[in-house]
Amino acid sequence: MSKVLIVAEHLNGALNASATAKTVSAARALSPESIDVIVLSDAPDAIAAEAAKIDGVAAVLTVAHPANAHAVAAVLAPQIAKAAAGYSHVFGPSTTFGKDVMPCVAALLGVAQVSDVMAVESSHVFKRPIYAGNAIVTVGTPADRPVVATVRVASWPAAGQGGSAAVRALALDVALPTHTRFAGLAAGKSDRPDLQSAARVVSGGRGVGSAENFQVIYHLADRLGAAVGASRAAVDAGYVPNELQVGQTGKIIAPELYVAVGISGAIQHLTGIKDAGTIVAINKDGDAPIFEIADIGLVGDLFTLLPEIEAALG
């Protein structure tokens, strides 16, 4: 039987509940004997209490160490690899955190990582996207080796809340590296919902025209209680910072509502939103590729249509 260890993502003392719960959903598809979550932090108790509430989690393991105050892959990976003894699978979310940490874990365990798992065929066979999401490949891993994988969170629903997993401290005898240390973190701050977990997202593209004009995107997002995103073209043009980029080289998201404003719909962008619930496209070019996947399309000048939409919202 499979036993799964999930690496919890957290920041500033709070669990990334959405990413972790979706990773749990992927693990449950294995029908495993048990699913445990590991929390590595300098003060893991509050984070562990959040993780313990996720349905399907049998136990939460905490590793408290001053070196775990910040998510440095070279520091976390040796501890995760040590804790993984006895587990058949080690999963992490395919977020910036997971893409940084999990390859290091795989290397230490001497296996090849399976990236962006979007479906589970069996305990050692998975489906994942390739070619910017234009094709899906089925991959197999050796049955006699542990599986290290990142989970494409946009492809999985979040596991429910209501669990009551046991929490226990884990003591690990691991030599931590001294050649890598935390120097600082530069991160954008916003009072708006998080882009990767928001139920609603409003994104702007090159058609918005300038950083100043991008205020219309922020304004509509605030009216909808939505997160703000952008195409790569808008980011490259300097309209918004790169942490807002949606697409193959940005964030892969799956909101219930996605509003694309002034975005033509390059394949790299469409890859990042293909799992969205309802897609609304607003563009003056009626032949823009975005309309091929949009559920609702509005052809016209965005600076005319957005005020009309906001007026209709009341």
From TrEMBL:
This is Electron transfer flavoprotein subunit alpha. It comes from the Bacteria. The keyword Electron transport applies. FAD binds at residues 206, 231-232, 245-249, 262-269, 283. GO terms for biological process: fatty acid beta-oxidation using acyl-CoA dehydrogenase. The keyword Flavoprotein applies. Its cofactor is FAD. Binds 1 FAD per dimer. Residues 4-186 form the Electron transfer flavoprotein alpha/beta-subunit N-terminal domain. The lineage of its organism: Bacteria, Pseudomonadati, Pseudomonadota, Gammaproteobacteria, Lysobacterales. Belongs to the ETF alpha-subunit/FixB family. InterPro entries: DHS-like_NAD/FAD-binding_dom (IPR029035), ETF_a/b_N (IPR014730), ETF_a/FixB (IPR001308), ETF_alpha_N (IPR033947), ETF_asu_C (IPR014731), ETF_asu_C_CS (IPR018206), Rossmann-like_a/b/a_fold (IPR014729). One of its GO terms (molecular function) is electron transfer activity. It comes from Denitratimonas tolerans.
